[in-house]
């Protein structure tokens, strides 16, 4: 998104430190551990945060450049509050881009930050409507990740005949979060287990972090299933996508989880669409993912929780590939343009310039 913009990356999730170091990004672990043994480190400006307090010394040491604004892409209130504090400290505008909805953003402290932000950006139209009502703002923009042209130029996956050496690959790319994917993703493991009894060359590959780290610990070691962890560098995802025969997007059927996640969708959805591979969306009808797919007549959608339906659809996909009737879906040029990275970058540039 920022390819055409001069920027500096600060990230708050220590899980990405290995890769952040490789790219020269700056880690500000927020929140930091609350243990009292870290108080001296905080007082000496060696860590950015401790028990809700932020270090001016750390900012002065690590953020000495002259910035025009703070652009905060957030899914947690901790990240947003810290970005707000940095913007105030540097006396520059704060732009907040909400990636996921949470009731925490509706609480007074967070809501006041969102109301006072120079720009507020949401990832879907549904989320925009929600925050227009919640905050009373009428200037909210909608912006989500875009797909680079390489996504629409991927070679077709390896064709039949499928075998253990040339498996039929179901693929999930993205973070696995218990509150977003629990009571849903488990069904894919069960469906694959059932299918492998009659089609042993079907495999399920998952890429991304897990939160919490033990989420799905037993299932990811199931026969035919492999969790590969975080994808870095990001360019590796194109190689991963090229091997996939079908992408899966699970959304929790649990009402209290669905109530919040319905306003968001996976950041990689535009890339999956542009790839032309079949997309299987498994979750409640009202999710933003399903609205986008249905509006653009894309993907396969199962809205009722049923391992039996999942098995039937996956079996049909496999048989379609076996008979060469499903190799690559055609994506209309106008849809590719809507979800293109260039289109997204142009809009981001307009948002920044109007700040």
How does this model look, in words?
The chain has 355 residues and is α/β, with parallel strands linked by helices. It folds into two domains: 10-30 and 66-146 and 342-353, 3-Layer(aba) Sandwich (Rossmann fold); 149-334, Glycogen Phosphorylase B (Rossmann fold, 3-Layer(aba) Sandwich), CATH 3.40.50.2000. It has helices at 17-23, 39-43, 56-62, 77-90, 108-116, 125-135, 178-181, 185-195, 236-243, 255-261, 269-275, 288-295, 307-322, 333-338, 341-353; strands spanning 10-11, 26-27, 49-50, 53-54, 70-74, 94-98, 119-122, 141-142, 168-173, 176-177, 202-207, 210-211, 225-227, 246-250, 279-282, 300-302. The relative contact order is 0.12. The model has no long low-confidence stretch (mean pLDDT 91).
Alpha carbon gyration radius:
21 Å
Sequence stretches where pLDDT stays below 50 over 5 or more residues: none
What number of structural domains do the residues give?
2
* End-to-end C-alpha gap: 17 Å
> Care to count the β-strands?
16
Biggest beta-sheet profile: 6 strands, parallel
Mean residue pLDDT? 91
The strands making up the biggest β-sheet line up spatially as 13-11-9-14-15-16
Share of residues in strands: 15-25%
